[in-house]
């Protein structure tokens, strides 16, 4: 029953992620006539997620096909081969979102600085996570070979540490979005729609902490002939949520998302220029300027 659920859930999320990315591509082509770096990063995230799903489905089949230890060895090799694709998915989705932030809000230097900091932090985390997971056992084949003498670092402890940082970056990106949007005075309905869009991004970080709380964050070498089913499902859910979050800003699609983004960026630039020109005595009491964006399709 658990295997059937895992197969069904994996296939459903694969279709959902592919559809989400395809809609983003359609919107970009329809409005801009071309694909941007954000689109290709979202596509790279999709490829990483689908590859991880493919390994998981293969593992579910292999682990029930053959006798121990043969089934175990094949399963652990698949688990080992899949390790880079989850952190790559998280890197590509966050990079796509940060590119979106930069295109809209980089007119303010402090915002641009934080966007770069978060991007660099995620890149460093991704490299470290992949490196540690690939070299977690010494010798490397101790991960799957029952007859080799060796040792492995505590993979659960390591993954708790890396996943904590990954989720913290998710929440930091949401917090940055709140600050950036609140810095420009929008109509309440428009601001609520924007903030709701950014808050969706916190779901990925929340799932990360749920995985940490479950304890079985990753496969422990020589512990089981298959993926930990519950954590595998949570990991797929986290990747799918991240993909939807990085694609969602474009979904007004046919919807004129780039028209909205262009207008918002223009207003942000006007706001920055206006603040440079006026003196402190001339500024409004709340330090903000009203932007009438009610007519924007958000």
Automatic annotation (TrEMBL):
Predominant cellular place of this UniProt entry's protein: membrane
Bilayer-crossing regions: 6-27, 39-58, 114-136, 168-188, 194-212
Protein name as catalogued: Putative integral membrane protein
Bilayer topology: Multi-pass membrane protein
UniProt cross-references to Pfam families, sorted A to Z: Fung_rhodopsin (PF20684)
Source organism (scientific name): Rosellinia necatrix (White root-rot fungus)
Matching InterPro entries: Rhodopsin_dom_fungi (IPR049326), SAT4-like (IPR052337)
One cellular-component annotation, GO: membrane
Keyword Transmembrane: yes
Family per record: Belongs to the SAT4 family.
Keyword annotations from UniProtKB, A to Z: Membrane, Transmembrane, Transmembrane helix
Domain Rhodopsin positions: 23-253
Localization per Swiss-Prot or TrEMBL: Membrane
Keyword Nuclease belongs to the record: no
